[in-house]
Amino acid sequence: MAENDIDWEKEHRAALNRLKRARGQLNAVIENFENGGDCTDVIHQLSAVTSALNRAGYSIMASAMKNCMIADEPKHTPEELQKAFISLA
């Protein structure tokens, strides 16, 4: 297994963990909202979910840009990756 494969797997695992953490946070927001939770608590929880998703998205895009650019046969052009990255903003 190449070193790049190991890095990709590590980055993939880290991004997946961020997404799962965000899913847990979103479930908490939904539960709090359904149960008539305090509006400021719901907003703070929602903000945390948004931040977690943004961090996961940026992590995934950074990894994709790095790994796609060094691939023998890239699946995406630099322009496609740039457009995808900008869509996170």
Describe this structure in words.
The structure is a single chain. The protein contains three helices and no strands. With 89 residues, it is mainly α. Helix 1 runs antiparallel to helix 2 and helix 2 packs antiparallel against helix 3. The chain starts with a helix and ends with a helix. 6% of the residues are buried. Pfam families: Trns_repr_metal (PF02583).
Briefly summarize what is shown:
By secondary structure, this protein is mainly alpha-helical. It contains 3 helices and no strands.
Q: How would you describe this structure in keywords?
A:
mainly alpha, 3 helices, 83% helix
Estimated share of beta-strand residues: under 5%
Principal-axes geometry comes out as: elongated
Q: Roughly how many Å apart are the termini? A: 35 Å
Q: What is the number of E strands? A: 0
GO molecular function: DNA binding
Pfam families: Trns_repr_metal (PF02583)
Organism: Trueperella bonasi
Family: Belongs to the CsoR family.
